[in-house]
Specification:
Largest sheet: none
Helix content: 40-55%
Order of helices and strands: HHHHH
Distance between the termini: 51 Å
Strand content: under 5%
Number of strands: 0
Shape: extended
Number of helices: 5
């Protein structure tokens, strides 16, 4: 029985130490690791045209992309079968699903156990 208490106390102490270490690292230690380029905060004091130039360069790259539709005309694509099933219209649910069922049936709502509403 003492072994179980000793092991349980050891586990609890270990968990508390790990939590304290993680809290210390999270709140007190600043990371020297550089932030990736895309996650930097917006710097409004700098030159705004740099971001605009990068955006325009990306747009120009996208305009040069040519999407061909030859895939859809290939025999392999044409031989694919559609195994989907049609959807069947079903009855809709209640108008207000959060109302108690007794209110929906026209019955008075059940009162609470202490007699107050």
């Amino acid at each position: 029985m003492k072994d179980h208490k000793f092991i349980l106390n050891g586990i609890i102490i270990l968990v508390v130490l790990v939590a304290a270490f993680l809290a210390y690292r999270f709140f007190y230690v600043k990371s020297d690791e550089p932030v990736p380029e895309g996650l930097n905060a917006v710097d409004f004091s700098g030159d705004a045209s740099q971001g605009t130039d990068e955006f325009i360069a990306l747009i120009n790259e996208l305009q040069s992309v040519d999407l061909t539709t030859d895939l859809f005309a290939s025999p392999a694509f044409q031989s694919l079968k559609n195994f989907s099933k049609p959807l069947i219209d079903e009855d809709k649910g209640r108008q207000n699903p959060f109302l108690p069922i007794s209110v929906m049936n026209g019955l008075p709502a059940a009162s609470s156990t202490d007699g107050s509403r």
